[in-house]
Amino acid sequence: MGLLWFNLIMFAFYLPSLILHEYGHALVGRLIGLRLKSVSIGKGEPFLRIGHFSVAKKQIWEGLYQSYPPTVPLRRGQRAVLLLGGIFANFIAGLFVAGLSQLFPSPVMHLLAPPFIQISIIFILFNLIPIRLTSGFPSDGLQLKRLFFNKNSRTD
Q1: Rounded to an integer, what distance in angstroms lies between the CA atom of residue 20 and that of residue 94?
Q2: What mean pLDDT is predicted for residues 126-146?
Q3: Less packed terminus of the chain by CB within 10 Å, N or C?
Q4: What's the rounded Cα separation, in Å, for the pair 83 and 19?
Q5: Host H or E run for residue 8
Q6: DSSP element (H, E) containing 93
């Protein structure tokens, strides 16, 4: 497969992987008792809204999961699992597709599985980097770093 096709397919998997990542946070939030407020892709006024999900025109490469404030403060471990929820979702999806490609080898799987697995790995690694995103929000990695290495455990 040519490099151009590989990169185009990876690009096509980016947005679904981002949505999967954010819903990974939402699923873990639900498991620890949080209520989903919204999952947003991009920044600014949304041009598409379906229930609690929205897509905006600006900075479409970033996503955000928001929950209603918990009635009981989250413990450090719960907060860590919530931050890792998106990464877990990308990891599980990558493993699932890798397994499918081995169980059901076909030309389509041979074409689509490697870029999906790679975008999953990129999501996992990128989200563990402790940086502030272009939207101003801290990455999952920065929030984890603050959670475990700062005395005041701030995660905003």
Answers
A1: 11
A2: 92
A3: C
A4: 15
A5: helix 3-31
A6: helix 76-103
